[in-house]
TrEMBL record:
The lineage of its organism: Eukaryota, Metazoa, Chordata, Craniata, Vertebrata. GO terms for molecular function: dipeptidase activity. Pfam families: M20_dimer, Peptidase_M20. It comes from the Eukaryota. This is Peptidase M20 domain-containing protein 2. Signal peptide: none annotated. Residues 221-314 form the Peptidase M20 dimerisation domain. It comes from Naja naja.
Length: 436
């Protein structure tokens, strides 16, 4: 092939890609009303980790109810897929390549389909609802899958622009519950939900547009101290003060911060500090999260923190039990190829991405990190028009603003208060700063 012919072929391919992207965008626009209703339903009924029954029903009904034509297959929907509130929706593109008569070539055997996965999250936080915008993650995951489906189906309407062989593609949408507490994706990995996928995509709402942010590894631990009750005024020397152990452990960790790396994080609460001032507490309980940029550093930080907990027990004469969380959240591995493609396409749409210097800033942790260790993927971030910080009531309002764009701020705040007052969300239940 001569140089000018190669350039013409490259230009034709780029034009074809641009055409497919246009079809994807038009398909999403056509479904915008249904997608908005889906997001509204999830935002208006916040549910805690592993309790997302209404969100599960809304999402599975959404895919099961999508219109079907004579040339388009229906989505295959599996409810309660591997986990009670997880789901899987599949759609396969299997359009045959051009005939051997047209190409003057023998028809080669069909390769296995390219298996693309789009991830949806939809759990909320205790007391403050969708303060991390998981309703929007569900919406954009569904939208991206519909856009890809539309782009593939456009091949039938534009035969002149077809490649000589149209590859088979299987589009999968995975509903992944419990990102805020427990790590539903980790359970799904163990159950084999990601085994038959080649690459996965998801996008998270934030204060900026970014193809990648350094989500870090996280370990949670519950610390229980057991002492001995006694009358705090009459004979305190007979008691072993479990609250003293808890306070000492908290202070030990505070002093440890002087020797911690700037990229390490330790934060926690005292969940049980006794029952009455004149009774020396015989039991206290703390809950702490430890974070570091990598699993190796997290292991080092974990050892140092455990020494702080054990030293407090030794100093007070109490017994201590350390209960690790079921699974650590891994740091997200960057995929430079997918990030480059995401930014190139995003810039064509007018997206202004943050500078690479900002990638040194720490964010939170997510169970997508565990996914990135077993399958290539991208966990991008998108700006929703608000500078409110995730895990605040202001961000809950902002996540609702995206789906109630025509209503006044007062109306949205009223909706938020009503939504929170009706939510069955107990403050006693754990809600962690996992995803942002």
């Amino acid at each position: 092939m001569r140089p000018n012919e190669a350039g013409e072929a490259s230009s034709a391919t780029e034009m074809r890609l641009d055409e497919w992207k246009r079809w994807a965008a038009e398909c999403i626009d056509e479904s915008s009303e249904r997608l908005g209703e889906l997001s509204r339903e999830i935002w208006s009924h916040p549910e805690l980790a592993f309790e997302e029954h209404q969100a599960h029903a809304a999402l599975t009904s959404f895919f099961a109810g999508l219109p079907v034509s004579s040339s388009s297959a229906a989505w295959s929907v599996q409810r309660s897929y591997k986990l009670e509130t997880a789901f899987r929706a599949d759609w396969k593109w299997d359009w045959a390549p051009c005939s051997s008569t047209e190409t003057n070539q023998a028809t080669p055997p069909s390769p296995p389909p390219l298996r693309l996965g789009f991830l949806c999250e939809y759990d909320a936080l205790p007391a403050i609802g969708h303060a991390c915008g998981h309703n929007l993650i569900a919406e954009v995951g569904a939208a991206a899958a519909l856009g890809l489906k539309g782009a593939l189906e456009s091949l039938r309407q534009n035969p002149a622009g077809l490649p000589r062989q149209a590859p088979a593609v299987k589009v999968t949408v995975l509903g992944t519950p419990a990102e805020e507490d427990g790590g539903g994706k980790i359970d799904l990995i163990k159950a084999g939900a990601f085994d038959n996928l080649d690459v996965v995509f998801m996008a998270h709402p934030s204060q900026e547009d970014a193809a990648y942010l350094p989500d870090i590894a996280e370990h949670d631990v519950t610390v229980k101290y057991y002492g001995k009750t006694s009358h705090a005024a009459a004979y305190p020397w007979e008691g072993l003060n479990a609250l003293d152990a808890a306070v000492l452990a908290y202070n030990n960790l505070s002093l440890l911060r002087q020797q911690m790396k700037p990229t390490w994080r330790v934060h926690g609460i005292i969940k049980n500090g006794g029952v009455k001032p004149n009774i020396i507490p015989s039991y206290t309980e703390l809950e702490f999260y430890l974070r570091a940029p990598s699993l190796r550093e997290l292991s080092t930080l974990k050892e140092k923190a455990e020494n702080c907990f054990k030293a407090a027990a030794l100093a007070t004469g109490c017994e201590v039990e350390l209960h690790d969380g079921e699974a650590d959240f891994y740091n997200v591995l960057p995929n430079k190829t997918l990030q480059k493609m995401y930014k190139e396409n995003g810039k064509k749409l007018g997206i202004d991405f943050i500078s690479d210097d900002s990638l040194n800033d720490l964010t939170g942790s997510t169970d997508f990190g565990n996914v990135s260790y077993v399958i290539p993927g991208i966990h991008s971030y998108f700006y929703i028009g608000s500078d409110a910080l995730n895990h605040t009531e202001q961000y809950t309002t902002a996540a609702g603003h995206v789906i109630y764009p025509m209503e006044s701020l007062e109306t949205k705040q009223l909706l938020l208060r009503k939504m929170l007052s009706n939510a069955t969300m107990s403050k006693e239940k754990k809600g962690s700063f996992q995803c942002q």
